[in-house]
Amino acid sequence: MKIKKAILTGGGRATRLRPVTSTMNKHLIPLANKPMIFHAIEKAVNAGVEEIFINTNPGETELQKYIGDGGHWGIKIIFFEQEGGPQGVAHVVKQAEKFIGNDPFLFYLSDNVILGSLKDFVDEFIEGNYDCMLALSQVPDPERFGVPVLDASGKLTDVLEKPATPPNNFAVTGIYLYGPGVFFKAFNNIEKSERGEYEISSIHSDLLKNNFKVGYKEITGWWKDTGKPEDLILASELLLKEIPAENFKIEGTVESGARISGNVRIGVGTTVNKNVTITGPVLIGENCTLEDCIISPNTTLGAGTKIRKAEIKDSIILNKCTIDCDIKLRESIIGSDVLVTKNESGHQKMILGENTLVEL
């Protein structure tokens, strides 16, 4: 048995990440200057997947434009809308039944970021002849997730969805494997939860109740559900550190006198003047302009961005931003086409959207 098919999530509203997600799909937010969902696609492809099916919000067009048909990864990608609106994670999988058929598959919530490969996870599923395999991770706040119930011998007996009093500090991460047909059999047995959704935990409870072989594997590396801005910043930082040193290249124009140290990548068409200090790991996109500024570790700058006079650290700056003032930014996310500049009158002027955070 091989896992050749995967379902990835591309929908949802990501209200906790507004205002950035007010104008862009969460899954396109760049982590290490690469759309978040690209990391999930690459993990699936490296695990042997050849066909990927991605659900989208009704009317979505940006996701399809950025991802394409899968040719970039040598696979096939098909998009599908979740009919009837959002009805829970398990409903996403049910909507893809016509693509999956009776084949085994990987289900990956694309806003989950992990370090390392999925290959061992997939291999253990196949070699153990499991009907279902869950990836677990220890977290400080298990009440936010599905939580496994384990007996004294460590055997999985149930899965609880967001329990008020979790029996342990494990979370079921958003990475799952299912054998032929088992998910859809279980879906026919479950009902919507009190919050009106088909819960993925209900699927696993049903499989366990009906004596299907459900296993689990702890993710011993790093895993993060990027539901909050601080999660995105941490994920970007760790992904930067995972990039091989040989992938950091200076392809732009750097004036003599500029101070560059550590792993730094500077894109084609970018100019860096002599009064700039850059300390890696840092990724700078194409056609950026850096003048009289300091770019400190764990920062990514999107294409076409202009930075003057500012100091930036531990931050994600998207495409075509202009930051032109004496300001120190840390642990910040700046959306595309944002202008940050000094008002010479001495007053502050702000045009802020919903859920904006400003610290002065």
Question: Key features?
Answer:
360 residues, elongated, alpha/beta, 29% strand, UDP N-Acetylglucosamine Acyltransferase, domain 1
State the gist of this model.
This protein is of the alpha/beta class and 360 residues long. 19% of the residues lie in helices and 29% in strands. It has two domains: 5-241, Spore Coat Polysaccharide Biosynthesis Protein SpsA, Chain A; 243-341, 3 Solenoid (UDP N-Acetylglucosamine Acyltransferase, domain 1).
Would you write up a description of this structure?
- It contains 8 helices and 29 strands.
- The protein folds into 2 domains: 5-241, Spore Coat Polysaccharide Biosynthesis Protein SpsA, Chain A (Alpha-Beta Complex); 243-341, UDP N-Acetylglucosamine Acyltransferase, domain 1 (3 Solenoid), CATH 2.160.10.10.
- Helices cover 19% and strands 29% of the residues.
- The protein has 360 residues and is of the alpha/beta class.
- Strands 5-4-1-6-11-8-12 form a 7-stranded mixed beta sheet, sandwiched between helices. A 6-stranded parallel beta sheet has the order 14-17-20-23-26-29, with no helix packed on it.
- It has helices at 36-46, 62-67, 89-95, 97-100, 119-127, 182-187, 200-209, 229-242; strands at residues 5-9, 30-31, 34-35, 51-56, 76-81, 105-108, 112-114, 132-138, 146-150, 156-161, 170-178, 214-218, 223-225, 253-254, 259-261, 264-266, 271-272, 277-279, 282-284, 289-291, 294-295, 299-301, 306-308, 311-313, 316-317, 322-324, 328-330, 333-334, 339-341.
